[in-house]
Amino acid sequence: MRKKKAIVEAALESEYERQALGIMNTEQALKLEDSDGLVFSHPDKEAGVTDHFIDQDELRRLVRRPKSPFPVSQSQDRTTR
User: Fold this and answer.
1) CB under 8 Å to 2, separation ≥6 — which residues?
2) Which one of 4, 24, 33, 34 is most buried, by most CB atoms within 10 A?
3) By percentage, how much of the chain surpasses pLDDT 70?
4) Which pairs count as long-range contacts for 16-20, CB under 8 Å and 24+ apart, including other chains?
5) In angstroms, rounded to a whole number, what is the distance separating the alpha carbons of residues 74 and 4?
6) Facing residues of 41 across strands?
7) pLDDT of 2-35, one tens digit each?
């Protein structure tokens, strides 16, 4: 289960290397200005250790995704006869 403010590593990635910028929570990461090459470690992995990096759009989708693997059921209005 994903934490609300998981810790991620921010980095600038080029064709040849990835330069670490720092460690922050996902809320701070999403407030950064979008930039070419700006990537973040996956929030379900250990920041500073993992090689699994994603862009800001993917991070935004992961953070806003419901935590439960089951869809929220909506009650339907039924009348009893």
Assistant:
1) 43, 44, 62, 63, 65, 67
2) 24
3) 75
4) 18/53, 20/48
5) 24
6) 53
7) 566 899 999 999 999 999 999 999 999 999 998 8
Measured between its terminal Cα atoms, the distance across the chain in Å is 43
Whether the pLDDT of residue 75 is over 90: the answer is no
- 15, two tokens: 């064709």
Q: What is the C-alpha separation between 21 and 41, in angstroms, rounded? A: 11
Phi, psi of 63, deg, nearest 5: -70, -35
CA proximity to 29, closest of 37, 38, 20: 38
Instruction: For residue 79, give both structure tokens.
Output: 């009348």
Token pair listed for 41? 């470690």
